[in-house]
Amino acid sequence: MTDPALIGFLGALRRVIRQIGLYPKDHPLTEEALATALTILNDDGERREEVLISISESAFYLDRVLLPHASLEFATLAHELEAREVQSITLVSPVSTSDLFDFGAFVSGQSDDLPAGGTIRLNEHRLTGRYEGMSALRMSYSGSLQTLRTASDAMAREGAFDLAAIMGSVEGLLATSIDESGSSLLLATVKSYDEYTFYHSINVAILALALGRMVGLEEDELVPIGAGALLHDIGKVSVDPRTLNHPGKLGKEQWDEIAVHPQEGAQAIMAAAGPGHEIAAMVAFEHHVRHDGGGYPPATRGRPAHAFSRMVSVVDVYDALTTRRRYRRAETPNHALHLMLSGAGTAHDPDFVKALIRTLGVYPPGSILRLENGQVVVVIRGHDEDPRQMHAVVAKDETGAIVDPEPVLVEVKDVVEQLLSDHAGVEPASFLENEAVVAQLHREYLGKSGVDEEPEATDVAA
Amino acid sequence: MDETQHEFSSLIEAVEFNLSDVAPDTPSDAEVDPEEALDLQEEIDFGQGASALNALASAWSTFRLYPDPANQPAFTQALGILAELEPPIFLQVRAGSFAVGVHEIEARRGGVEQLAKQLFLHDVDEVRIEFVPTADDLCEIFRALSLEPDEAWQQGGLLEIVSDIATVTLRHRGLLGDRDGDVGGSKDDVAANQRDSELAAMVDDGTNPTVMAEYLKQSAQDDPAAVTRLFIEAYEEIHQEVPEGGGASSDITLVEMFSPYWAGELGPSPTGTFMDVFFMLPHESQVLIMAQFLDSAGDGVHRIFLDQFSGAELADLASHMDQARRKAMLAYARDAGDVHDVTTEELLALLESGSNVRDRRQTASTHVAELLATLDSETNDTALAQEIREQVDVSRRSDHASDVMRGLFEVENREERFKRLLRVWTGHIAREVRKGDYPSALKALETVTVDPPYDATNEPSVQAAVGRLVSRSLVRDVLSEMGKGNEEATAFLIGIGSTSIKKLVEQLAEEEDGTMRRALIDLLTVIGKRNVAALMASLRDPRWYVVRNVATVLGKTGNRAAVAPLTKALSHEDARVRIEVLRALMPLAPNESARMLVDALADREKRVRHAAAALIKTSPAPELDAMLIEGMEAGAMDDDTVAGVADALVERGSEVGLQGLRVLADRKFALKKHQRAVRNAARAALEEAAA
């Protein structure tokens, strides 16, 4: 099974588990989900008899090889599997429908019966010995996802959550972002569609921390702001999911329902208490206040938001614009920045918009660009001296064929088109573990730390 | 030629076609030679399809007329035509017509028309000639087609009846997820080939939008009207398979159907794909398409298309619309609001201004210069950092908490949420008190209680919440701090007391510890000085001891506003209350209380009389002595009281009082017992004084 096939299967499996949790076995959607997953499994071009998927510390491994990007994209699924003590899944081709259903029912908690047919076997080959783990930044991201999930569940049940855990996540994100500053901006391009709020919140936190560091804030000043960024949408727990997931623009009633999430979040954070909770609550309360005093909630109209809230608001909008959502397409990063620049002074604080542009560059990390020569490149980071240049890696050659990523220095004038991830078939964050990319990012770190000598790429990877 | 043969010849003539009788669907109503309209491959496909259709129709007509059709020349000729073709050949069935690809073949001749009708009746939407059929194959199929639909279903359905035939297969028209399946084809083939529209089939297949856009333009020969029609047909075909709200025969709603796409599990959604194609079309086509969707904006599936556009994109298209369509767009915009970037107001403004938004996602260079200029511009990082630094400083913590709380109270109008907010608020205050941060606690308290930001109807709830906050332990702790001279604690307790006098009064009523009682009285006295009205309300409490306590406090406040209500309380049924009220009134209203004291000397309760007698000794009222002499003479006082009053007058030592006593003592004629008692008491008091 190839990596893309595994990712496809994990997505299909996730859907199977969800459908089983919602509908009976003979429901058309359940049957369709099962059929899709089986098609991916049993039509795999490699035609292997057995495929081994391992799970350890919220990471997926295919034949003992770590899949960091898939691990992050399917962090929830990994957690669900680990919660059911599934550490390895052996798929024997051809996988049967009944085995797949039983497996899905087991993972979703609908049943305690393991697949009996033998085409899906669990925990036969646990990971042992030394194996590669996820980077500290990815672990921090994954851990933050779990923390947010726990907080949201607690808030939904009891109306309260543990703020200390949130602060711990922010400190982890901050520390790893500082250590891997280039990587963090690339990692902040990870998107999820069924857990939009959680991934979005973490991306906003990463971006806010980066922006805060860019303007000169210290770490202890950033932690409460980071907590505010991480929690800014926690109030959406109280919004009906059917409203949140509505596929079109909102009607007035739905709008009114969504518009209470800032006050819901602020209340919950004040109830949680803890060091820095006042700032986090203020961010949650004000993050939809416009620069010109409009926005919501109505209590804030006419009064400017606090500076730290304005900062979070700017990165919030940026990440939202660059994400495909239920009701609209994603914008390319560059176009998103332009839209925000157009709204600077009215919707957005102009100083923070400009600061964000300086933080991310004209073509932010993760931008997918088609060059004049036909190549498709992914921007990894900006150039330290010349804003008209970017460090990128080639993802596709001029024929459109996927190639091994090669570092390349790109000039703004060479760009002819911006692409979205869906169309380009490229996932920027998946390059993070690539040696060429790591070398690029490490070079940035070396440059900033004043070290002249560049290590070998293999050393960096190790 | 006999009659039968004549009829047969006529029929042969009737069913014989040539290509000129079969007109492809073109924008023009005039017949167009298909060889001019199609490229080579399409021409071949169309030609084959038309020939196949001719042959099938001929065979069908023969089958209907003759009991032994396989032996009829027309039937044999039809088979011969089919044998010369190169399968597979696909014929889509529509109401009254067939289609090969996107080209429609109208059924102008009887045989074709009859065949189309019968196939449509049986819900067949495609005839697929896989291999050259035999006579038996065709007869078997025609036999099944001749059945009434009910008859066919009773035998398991048309497809079941012809399932053994591999050369010609029929596709059944079905709902999504309710496929009757097919014989001889894969499920994917079913999915792809059940589409009327080639574009819709491409969406099913996940074709790249660029390819789809190119196909559209070529198929329509760049005619914007044709592009529009093909686009919308395909869109509606994909989106209207299931009604938005679900149908009687379907458990799936439109939202459920597309949720996996929107969740990103199955790649871009069909809606998203159509959007991507849309933006690759010529601008004129975009405008036409948008116009048609606006005309049907009330329909759910069409509205979803409109909803995908950002405000800027709509505004750009609006500038090219006619007045009526722009009004329709405005009407749509008033119902819609984009959560993140463009509000309804902004969208309306954009639409009304007709501004032409420049940006296109695919154009890389139009705004890069702007962004580069931003990078080159003067930076303001230091000021930003400083502003944030000042705001996140620990000293501002209580300000932020107060601001958030006040804001929350301003906006929260849902009953259950308001109650929860009260708990959050009082919890916050209690935490600050536990930490010893009285200024923050007071700030948090006053941010809500001073100039209340909430609706007045919530006042009782707020009062009750503060009352719950004023627990015995909290009051004890804070009073303890007050005792140490902690002025901040005092300020807090005064602040909270002002809102919770009733609770403190209750605590005073229950408190047994003398020290605490005194502290509470002192506290209430301080509070009462600023808010005596709240205390006075407790004078109406049904419990005598509460009224007594309040009377004590009121007396200590020195606030004359309490005189009137205290005076009313003089008639309280409990003697202990009457006594305390007298004590309270004396310092508050020294002159007015003189009369009250005199009246109390005639109280029905002995202890009240005794208390009054004790109080008159220290009353500063100058007119009291005269009143007392009058009272003694009036006869309302009993003998003991008269004696006490006489002693008090001597003790007071006023000339008025002493002279009055002398007059009473020298009275010669005291016929009544009371009069003799007064005379004796006066004489005794004076003698005592002289001694």
Q: What structural class do the secondary elements of chain A suggest?
A: alpha+beta
The largest beta-sheet of chain A arranges its strands as: 3-2-1-4-5
Uncertain runs of chain B are: 1-38, 174-193, 242-251, 337-345, 348-364
| Principal-axes shape call of chain B | rod-shaped
Termini of chain B, distance in Å?
173 Å
Tell me, what's the shape of chain A? globular
Q: What is the distance, rounded to the nearest whole angstrom, between the alpha carbons of the first and last residues of chain A?
A: 26 Å
The percent range for strand residues of chain B is under 5%
What can you tell me about this protein's structure?
The complex is a heterodimer of chains A (462) and B (691). With 462 residues, chain A is α+β, with helices and mostly antiparallel strands. Chain A contains 20 helices and ten strands. In chain A, helix 9 crosses helix 17. Chain A starts with a helix and ends with a helix. Chain B has 691 residues and is mainly alpha-helical. In chain B, helix 22 runs parallel beside helix 24 and helix 27 packs across helix 29. In chain B, a hairpin with a 2-residue loop joins strand 1 and strand 2. The termini of chain B are far apart.
